[in-house]
Amino acid sequence: MSSFFIGLILLFFSGIVAAKCPKNFKITALSILSAIGSGFCFVPALHSLLSGEYFVKTFVFNDLFGAVNFVIDPLSAFFIIVISVMSLASIIYSKGYLKPYIEKGKNINAHIVFLPVLVASMMAVVTCQNALMFLICWEIMSLSSFFLVIFENEKKEVLKAGIKYLVFMHISVIFIIAAFAMLSIKAGSFDFSSFKDVFAHNAHFANIVFLLLFVGFGTKAGFVPFHNWLPDAHPAAPSHVSAIMSGVMIKTGIYGILRTLALIGNPSKSISYTVLIISIVSALYGVLYAITQHDLKRLLAYHSIENIGIIGIGLGVGMLGLAYNNPIVAILGFAGGILHILNHSIFKELLFLSAGSVYTKTHTRNIELLGGLIKSMPKSAVLFLIGSVAICGLPPFNGFVSEFLVYLGMFKGLSIHNFFSVIMLLFAIAALALVGTMAVLCFTKAFSIIFLGMPRSEAAEKVKEDCGLSMILPMCFLASLTLAIGVSSVFVFAIMLNPVNIFVDVSQYNILPAISLMAMVTLYALAFVVFLGILIFIKLKLTNGKIEMHETWGCGYNKGNNHMQYTASSYASPFLSMLAPLFKKVFDIEKPRKLFPQSAHFSLHVEDIEEAYVIEPILKSDEWFLSKFEGIQSGNIQSYIKYGLIFLVIVLIGCFIALG
Amino acid sequence: MIILVNLIILLLVPFLMAGVIKKTKAFWGGRKGASIFQPLYDFVKLIKKDFVISRTTSAIFKIAPVIQIASVLFAAMFVPLAYGSTFLNVSAGLIIFAYTLSLGKFASLISAMDTGSSFEGMGASREACFTAIVEPAFFMLIASIMALTGTTTFDSLRNILANAGSYGILIIIFAAVVLFIMILIEGSRVPVDDPATHLELTMIHEVMILDNSGSDLALFSWANGIKMLLLSSLIAFMVIPAGLNEWLSIGLYLLIMFIISVLIGTIESAMARFRMSHVFEFVFVMSSFALVVLSLVVARMFGG
Q: Best of B51, B61, B79, B96 to disrupt the A interface by mutation (most A CBs within 10 Å)?
């Protein structure tokens, strides 16, 4: 346990040390220092995850905090491992990504300081078991990530997105504070373990607190309808920061929900259904909007919402299993959900990093302007493809393993003989299938428009070479992880049982059928990989000499050019036109006029329906209401002193009334 | 033994089904038609041919057909073929089956987009769209039947009658309709798609493989045939009773494959393909029938 704190402190200060280094050595220093720091945190976490042991360290600061417990249990350990490995990959990647900025003379010191602070604060969040300390760590996490998002703060839209993120985080933290305040008043202490009794004795109270915490943590995680900050913040941030935020940081929200569940023990049916329904909506909403996007990073951000939804479906199924007293369903659901946290962080980070590579080379995120990059950037293309296949949940990659577990949980859950649960699960199964196929649609679109066909603009055409090794290597590492988990699913499942143990006592139930099934899936995936490898090898060997090159078939027209290709919008259009009422489409059309038209253009972009119909009206009415008070802001100092005086008098009177 | 027979069925019957469909169309058209082995001869001829490949394409285009055929063959492991025998009869095999097929579909979609042709983009976009509607309905259908019978393997298809009594017949009929529509969509047959058409603008599956030639083309159409066989096998599995004699059961299975092929051929001769906007409506018919099965199951489980 003490090595964990050494690592934590190292991480906190590694940025400051690195910022003092010479210009070209800064990020190398940061990578080395944070590698050591993460390593120190990683070792006890791995030990706890594999053995199921608990490590506890208690600090006593002062009377206000009480005893502050830092605990590494398998659940925390799981999150520490995800945080340390994934952040390290991003930090190493940032060396290549930030190079052009350093060459241009941009000051990156603040960025370097906050990067490891974010990592350290996330680790503190997932281990701290004291409500007050937890909030402090949570706030450090939100603020440091805010400073990372506004890296390119000279751009107006980046600053705007950053502030939106900050506002959302602070609205969400109000709910968390409220819930913790209610809990600590009832329990008489800030310690999480004391909350357990409160939950155990007040079922109704537990529901309310859970919902408050779900709103608070769900905003961080990006559940619909609290997701609105995600699609703005991710495109604004540099790619490696988006990777950390989407891959790791939003998972701390899931951690909060899981920790709350662990304290509640046996969730009520109503909140189980609530979680399941919100998750299904999030998954569908996320993938649907992802299909509409042409901005690569916005698209990936919406996919984060989708995957958070899938994780939530896993948790929801687990909760239903607990609520209906069906432990096998609970084990499968939780195992699937928790494993999907790891899987999503791997492939989403891989995708964000390869999106970053594309951005460094082409300087655009608009996929309609890309194309044909597989020829100039073959490594990034293959890596992006692996990430795409994995995120669609297709075998033999890791996404399949966790989605399979979630599905399995739902199928087993069908045996719960209850009208609502059967209907709910049947629709959840169909919804998850829909999400999967929509993800296939979205990623075939993204991959083929970015990397295949002919370059659609000069930006894509003039790319000559792939990215450097410091960017490719972390991505290769992540890509090999996706495959490794995909073909060793039974071991991964067995390890996941340790965190699940916190929710259900696994050892009491017979999970051998599930394990043997997973073993079969493992063998199947291995056989598939080998078979496919052999086939591809044969195919490429056998057909090497027999190929004649020709133009693409165009009904006999041989001069097809890049403007005649299908675009991302047209690829998605048949599907989206069926669901037209779910979007607000904004057309920007300038029709060709006059005899000799000078200019004409057409563009279409889809606005988030929640933003257009919920958030905008609220902001408008807010603005109207607050404008009534404009008169107070007179601008001369005397009147402000007057306000201060009036305030003091009111406080004084209030005190007299309260005391007298 | 039975595995060997099934392997032969899996690899060969798709060609025969295609042959029977063509023969039926010839019959209704008043022609004599080619031998039912013609698709097999075509396959052999295509395998021997060289390739003509577009300059725009990359390695994706070359390996996609292999991925497609591998995924279809591996997905076949989970489906009960003749005599109801499944190579891997596991819990939730439906998911592995469907997701492995999706991998092949993923490969064929990006291979179509790899050519940079707008026709192929069009086909890929429609194919992706249909899959997105078909798959949830398919999952809902099978999952409802699993809820009814209480098992999570494909065996539940066979236990419908035992579990649902008089509802069973209705469920089987509706489920068979759903699966049949799915065969038409996945196999790209009339009225969804016309494999014999020569207008690129209106095609779906066929337009995706416009630029494929030689063994690539052969592998794609073979994979498509196997996919149709797998879905037809699900219908056969639902209908053929369990306790039959081995050879009788295999005979019945082949008979059902024959009937399905004749039915497809007859539909193809009797009607034209739908206008593209109507195709989407037709695809939704499948979803609504799946919903009917779901409500029947729920009515049986919880109604009086």
A: B96
pTM to 2 decimal places: 0.95
Say whether residue B29 is in contact with chain A using an 8 A CB cutoff: no
User: For residue A587, what are the β-bridge partners?
Assistant: A604
Nearest to B102 among A431, A436, A560 (CB): A436
DSSP chain B: -HHHHHHHHHHHHHHHHHHHHHHHHHHHTT-----TTHHHHHHHHHHHS-EEEETT--HHHHHHHHHHHHHHHHHHTTS--GGG--SS--TTHHHHHHHHHHHHHHHHHHHHHTT--HHHHHHHHHHHHHHHHHHHHHHHHHHHHHHHHS--SGGGGTTHHHHHTHHHHHHHHHHHHHHHHHHHHHTT-TTT--TT---GGG-SHHHHTTT--HHHHHHHHHHHHHHHHHHHHHHHHHHS-TT--HHHHHHHHHHHHHHHHHHHHHHHHH-PPPPHHHHHHHHHHHHHHHHHHHHHHHHHHH--
What residues does each domain of chain A span?
266-541, 573-659
pLDDT at A421: 93
Tell me whether residues A449 and B113 touch, CB distance under 8 A. Answer: yes
The answer to whether A374 contacts B60, with C-beta atoms less than 8 Å apart, is yes
Interface test with B, best of A397, A552, A563, A571 (most B CBs within 10 A): A552
Domain boundaries, chain B: 2-302
The percentage of chain A sitting over the pLDDT mark of 70, rounded to a whole number, equals 100
In chain B, whose CA is at the least distance from the CA of A439?
Answer: B132
pLDDT value of residue A561: 82
Return the structure tokens found at B56.
Answer: 């725009």
* Residue A160 confidence (pLDDT) above 90: yes
**Is the CB of B62 less than 8 angstroms away from the CB of A564?**
no
Please give the full DSSP string across A638-650, using - where no structure is assigned.
HHHHHHHHHHHHH
Tell me whether A483 touches chain B (CB under 8 Å): no
Q: What pLDDT is stored for residue A334 in this prediction?
A: 96
Report the alpha-carbon distance of residue A632 to residue A387 in Å, rounded: 55
What integer pLDDT is reported at residue B304 of this predicted model? Answer: 60
Residue A571's contacts (CB-CB under 8 Å, 6 or more residues apart) are A444, A445, A448, A449, B113, B121, B124, B125, B128
pLDDT, mean of residues A354-377: 92
Beta-carbon separation of B52 and A441 below 8 A: no
Please check whether residue A218 is in contact with residue A258, taking contact to mean a CB–CB distance below 8 angstroms: no
On the question of pLDDT at A94 being above 90, the answer is: yes
pLDDT for A519 beyond 70? yes
Mean pLDDT of all residues belonging to chain A: 92
Q: Is A437 close to B124, i.e. CB distance below 8 A?
A: no
Report residue A106's pLDDT band, with 50, 70 and 90 as the boundaries.
Answer: confident
pLDDT band at A550 (very low <50, low <70, confident <90, very high): confident
Q: Considering CB atoms only, which of B200, B215, B298 is closest to A555?
A: B200
How far does the CA of residue A383 sit from the closest CA of chain B (Å)?
13
Region A190-210: mean pLDDT is 91
What's the pLDDT score for residue A580? 83
Q: Return the number of CB contacts < 8 Å for A and B.
A: 244
Among the partner residues B103, B114, B143, nearest to A453 by beta-carbon distance: B114
Restricting to A residues 567-596, those with a Cβ less than 8 Å away from any Cβ of B are 570-575, 578
* Number of residues that make up chain B: 304
Residue A107, pLDDT above cutoff 80: yes
Name chain A contacts of B55, Cβ cutoff 8 Å: 549-552
Pairing of strands A67-72, A601-607: unpaired
- Which of A110-114, A408-412, B135-139, B280-284 shows the lowest per-residue confidence on average (mean pLDDT)? B280-284
Tell if the CB–CB gap between B131 and A551 is shorter than 8 Å: no
The pLDDT of residue A331 is 95
